[in-house]
Amino acid sequence: PRCHGCHPALTLPPQTEPNVARVGRVASRLCQELRLARPAVCQQAVELFQRDVVTAWARSVLRPGEACGLLLGQRCGHWDIMADWNVTMPGTPKPPVRPPVPPPPGAPVEHILFLTDLHWDRQYQPGSAVACPDPLCCRGEPLGGPGGAGFWGSYGKCDLPLHTIEALLEHAVGTVANGSLASSRPVVGSWQ
Question: Which residues form the Saposin B-type domain (predicted)?
Fold first, then answer.
């Protein structure tokens, strides 16, 4: 049953549904019918990523059977990651390789700390469930007893508590002169 909605949904090209919100509603309904997540998670995750998904869908070279196989597994279509791909390279010749030139002795030294993709969760709760059906766990009431989310964070489907990032930055201030912070996406659980 999971496959039945995938092929028809992907057969209809996104150009016939120019309204991104309408495509989002279809994707949210499909997510719920396929039971990929709870209805609230489906709806809010689709709202967050619908523009990116529609753009990727419109530019995709995958046929519906390949996309369904990629998204839902081999029972829903054939997707072979090892298949041959043709990549046309431009005719422009590569520039010559120039080996790097090290700085002269005694040149000033700059220390840079570059942090990227720090995912923090404002709803992180130490002691809460590390495993849950949602895309992001370590939230909610503490379980009481061992096995819950750690104070500084936990592996699995958990982002970091704010106090871990604050401690990291406080430590970095004392050890690194210059730093940069970058992030490519909102928090994974930003649907809540």
Answer: 1-80
Phi, psi angles (nearest 5°) of residue 165: -70, -40
Angle, CA of 180, 184 and 185, to the nearest 5°: 130
**Cα(192)–Cα(188) distance, rounded to whole angstroms?**
10
What distance in Å separates the CA atoms of residue 74 and residue 68, rounded to the nearest whole number?
8
Biggest alpha carbon distance in the chain?
A: 69
Q: Who's near 181: CB < 8 A, 6+ residues apart?
A: 115, 116, 118
Going by C-beta distance under 8 Å and a sequence separation of 6 or more, which residues neighbour residue 164?
Answer: 120, 152, 153
Dist CA 45 CA 61 (whole Å): 24
Cα–Cα dist 160/158, whole Å: 7
User: What Rg value do the Cα atoms of the chain yield, rounded?
Assistant: 23
At 124-181, the pLDDT tens digits run 999 999 988 888 899 988 877 778 999 999 988 899 999 999 998 888 887 776 665 5
Residues 54-63: contacts with CB under 8 Å, at least 24 apart = 54/14, 54/20, 54/23, 54/24, 57/10, 57/14, 57/23, 58/13, 58/14, 58/15
